[in-house]
Amino acid sequence: MRLLSGKCQRPPERRAPAADECGACGLSAASHKAQGAPAHTMWTADEIARLCYEHYGRTLPKQGKPEPNREWTLLAAVVKIQPTADQTCDRPDRPVQVTKEVVSMGTGTKCIGQSKMRKSGDILNDSHAEVIARRSFQRYLLHQLHLAATLKEDSIFVPGTQRELWKLRPDLLFVFFSSHTPCGDASIIPMLEFEDQPCCPVSRDWANNPSVEASDNLEAPEDKRKCEDSDSPVTKKMRLEPRTPDGMAHHQSFGNQESGPNSPDVSSSNLTAEELAAVTGTAPGGAKVVDVYRTGAKCVPGEAGDSGKPGAAYHRVGLLRVKPGRGDRTCSMSCSDKLARWNVLGCQGALLMHFLEEPIYLSAVVIGKCPFSQEAMQRALIGRCQNVSPLPEGFGVQEVKIQQSDLLFEQSRCAVQAKKAENQGRLVPCGAAISWSAVPEQPLDVTANGFPQGTTKKEIGRLQARSRISKVELFRSFQKLLSSISEDKWPDSLRVQKLVTYHEYKEAASTYQQAWSALRKQAFGSWIRNPPDYQQFK
Fold first, then answer.
1. Could you write out the DSSP letters of every residue in 128-139?
2. Which parts of 60-163 fold into alpha helices (H)?
3. CA 48, 52, 53, 54 torsion: positive or negative?
């Protein structure tokens, strides 16, 4: 598939080091070249993908993985990049050697409906792989803070300049990996005439028939067409079929939305040439845009909405979207929207911000082999928020590096479909989600329908029926960290008032809330927020 490239039009206020920067000094490859040092790359997209695939196969258990030849799943992870010891820039003739370590991983394809949400915080509302990986990453960060603040052991954190606050070691960076393009805006990709197809086509019946929906990421109704070699004439004839890189069917979804101004309209006046191609039918260079890959995520109430017209004008780009649910509407924003939010607010969330001098940002996002557009990713993750300002000190719209690997996830829908015999029935998404964190105690967590796999109805509400990455369990880990530190050494944000509930602790993270408020007012005004009574647990 031809990749459409794009650039952020405004320099970021602050960003983490990119993939081609020196891990020892942070200089870019161009800076090294200007100083007489050789340009070098710390890692490649294929190295990140291979590391994650190997970790998935070696570390994650069979429990929670797809049933062979019948199920598929999605994979995401956070990888820590760190220069090996004793490296400095005084040896420009030597490329920087780095260690790459998976510190969190998630699999999953589903969300729960609005009616199944619980005010006790003990259920996972969103079990898409990206969200599971990020919540698993938060668990890892909590453990690392415990090492630094309580045990005084080696950690990814070092003391900050402000009282009792911590910051990430300057030589570290984190790369986010996903085996697939995030659902939502990043999945709206122009399809050019005569381009090779990188993955299985999706039938028009699936894309337009929500009644067949079985999960948030599912394959088409039994499609008799097989995954062909991308160079074969059969595959090329299929290029006019609408496809959904996020694997979603279409279904209306919404919930309680944030009051405030809506996101600015996306019109031809602010679209790049590549984005405009999706609605005008012509790409840069004159190639004809025959259609767009489609996302099953629906526009939130208050957004302009999709046109629904056939062909390239089917979707409007740049809009907030909600993940679909099977009959029961969800309140879960698309993964494109969540990644864009993390790119401004950081991945740590509000609770951990109490202990941090600055947010924990991703330096890069790597996508596995699947339908992909550099332009769509740039638009969805960076472009929609690039003019948000001012933001509190330490916060900023990040110029996150976006790359794609040529390596296919072996348990993706496309890979499983290609191996499946014709008489083995239709593929379905795996119902389980796996969470893994680089923590010493109980790193694994396998869930289904938002609870630990195997949980019975009678057990719901008990301690053993909580996922380790549920809101209430992450809050419990945060409270445990707090109780291990003497109160006179608490950050000021936790000492000014008596805090009790999860909601109160989150709201007390003032800089985070200021940044989140600015992001909502200026870019994401229609973001769906859960009512406060869903955050009153203790």
1. EHHHHHHHHHHH
2. 129-149
3. positive
Q: Helical H runs in 82-128? A: none
Alpha-carbon distance 126 to 108, whole Å?
9
- The encoded tokens of residue 200 equal 């299985």
* Crossing angle of helices 374-381 and 273-280, rounded to 10°: 110
Q: What is the 3-state secondary structure (H, E, C) of 354-401?
A: CCECCCCCCCEEEECCCCCCHHHHHHHHCHHHCCCCCCCCCCCCCCCE
538 residues of the chain, pLDDT tens digit each: 433 333 333 333 334 444 445 544 444 444 343 333 333 458 999 999 999 999 999 999 999 999 999 999 999 999 999 998 766 555 555 677 899 999 999 999 999 999 999 999 999 999 999 999 999 999 999 999 999 999 888 999 999 999 899 999 999 999 999 999 999 999 999 887 755 444 443 333 333 333 323 333 333 323 333 333 333 333 333 333 344 555 443 332 333 333 333 333 333 333 444 444 544 455 555 567 788 888 888 899 877 888 888 888 889 999 999 998 776 889 999 999 999 999 999 999 999 999 999 999 999 999 999 999 999 999 999 999 999 999 999 999 999 999 999 999 999 999 999 988 766 788 999 999 999 999 999 999 999 999 999 999 999 999 999 999 999 999 999 999 999 999 999 999 999 889 999 999 999 999 999 999 999 999 999 999 999 999 999 9
How many CB atoms sit inside 10 A of residue 174's CB? Answer: 21
- CA 269 to each of CA 282, 377, 384, 458: distance values in angstroms, whole numbers, following the listed order: 16, 20, 14, 56
- Residue showing tokens 């790119």: 343
For 357, the token pair is 């001098």
Q: Which two tokens stand for residue 490?
A: 């608490």
CA torsion sign, 305 to 309 to 310 to 312? negative
Q: Cis link prior to 390 (omega < 30° from 0)?
A: yes
Sign for the CA dihedral angle at 516, 517, 523, 527 comes to positive
Q: What is the dihedral of CA 103, 180, 418, 102, to 10 degrees?
A: -10
Residue 62: partners with Cβ closer than 8 Å, 6 or more residues away: none
* Angstrom distance (rounded) from CA 19 to CA 22: 8
CA separation for the pair 215, 128 (Å, rounded) = 10
Secondary structure (3-state) at 306: coil
C-alpha to C-alpha distance for 347 and 344, rounded to whole angstroms = 9
Helix (H, G, I), strand (E, B) or coil at 79: strand
Strand pairing class (173-178; 75-83): antiparallel
Q: By the 8 A CB rule, do 485 and 326 touch?
A: no
Query: Which amino acid would we find at residue 38?
Result: P
SS3 label, residue 140: helix
Does the global pTM surpass 0.85?
A: no
Give yes or no for a contact between 479 and 464, defined as CB atoms under 8 angstroms apart.
no
Residues marked active site are found at: 130
- Distance CA(43)–CA(170), nearest Å, equals 18
